[in-house]
Task: structure prediction
Amino acid sequence: MNPPSPDIRVSRRAATRLRSGHPWVYRSDLEGEPALPRGGLVRVLTDRGEFLGSALASSSSQIALRMIAAQPLTESDLPALIAARVREAINYREHLGIPNVSNAYRLVFSEADQLPGLIVDRYDDVIAFQALTQAMDEPEIRKQVLATLRKALSPAAIVERVDPKIREKEELESRPGGLAFGEKTTAIVSMKPDAGSAPVRLHYDAAAGQKTGAFLDQRENYAAAIPYAHGDALDVFCYQGGFAMHLGRVCSSVVGVDSARPALEAAERNVELNRESLRVPEMEWIEANAFDLLRDWSAAGRKFGTIVLDPPAFAKNKRSLPTAIAGYKEINLRALKMLEQGGKLVSCSCSHHVTEEDFLAMLAQAARDARRRVRLLEVRGQSRDHPVVAGIPETAYLKCVIAFVE
Ligand code: SAH
Result:
């Protein structure tokens, strides 16, 4: 028999939030100063003792509790529940038909799949996972996650990706990451803009790169940009060329810009990978600070038919919002000036703190300052394999606006 999970009482404010479907309890919303079990299960109660649900606790994070179920649970119920949730997450992507167009997509997206703190991405037969919380790092849970993934997908390898900063925040011992199963750490992934088209192929290397290796959240935006793109294209913050390779299908030339040399080297390899099977125009990769390059090129009067802006998150928290907006405005203003009449702007922000409303307001200001009229063709978000859950605004973070610039 497992010992009963501790009862944790939370403030009225937290109870209201939980009842509305949001899964988090902040440390400041705990009643009294309870000792939370590291990564363990707790029973969440209102200040009057009514049962609200079961949650996974963190002894260090500001997000003290993350709800895992509406019903009472014991620790011994957890592995089966986690396994069922992982299977549901896999089925959801299959239900949407995502594996028919790509063999690279997010399999598990944390709270959006009711698996708070767990990220799992598929890169063909290599799976990359990341545990972001004490609970998801518990040996029993990890074992269950790995076993479920192996059973459901028969991958060649499973690789753990580690974010040292997150592990430090969660007071998890530092670990290097690496293979958790199998031997393979590279793959060639493919993504089709639609089921009938030839795929763009991209190298994946689990031992290198940012995030879990690629920016899978942009996959559907790559495809969405194709019908609008034309002329000479500029892909700013291009990383390994995700947008650039897709623009290459329709544009007369593509310039990719990034400050990370290894990313550009990977982009160059991606070009070679597609040369046989896809139309590949003249492509150039430039290592530069995007702010400097946009300033210089707009001053020099360079013109493009299509410009993509996909910068890193400028706003890491609410306090940095004004500086972040100023940064977005600067790059959008320069890009607008560099677009030909009738040019297309694909402008993104992956900062959760910048809302869609903030982002559109920034774009309107940039348009006014650039003296260009901007018509919004599409206001998009992240690919559907990174689900957005009603009532959990934190699950929506990516904005991708495609615009016609007069
Ligand atoms: N568009 C890419 C993802 C971009 S992520 C894709 O779809 O895969 C943001 C990129 O911006 C990273 O590759 C990072 O190296 C780059 N970067 C960050 N700061 C930069 C700067 N000041 N100038 C140029 N590139 C920068």
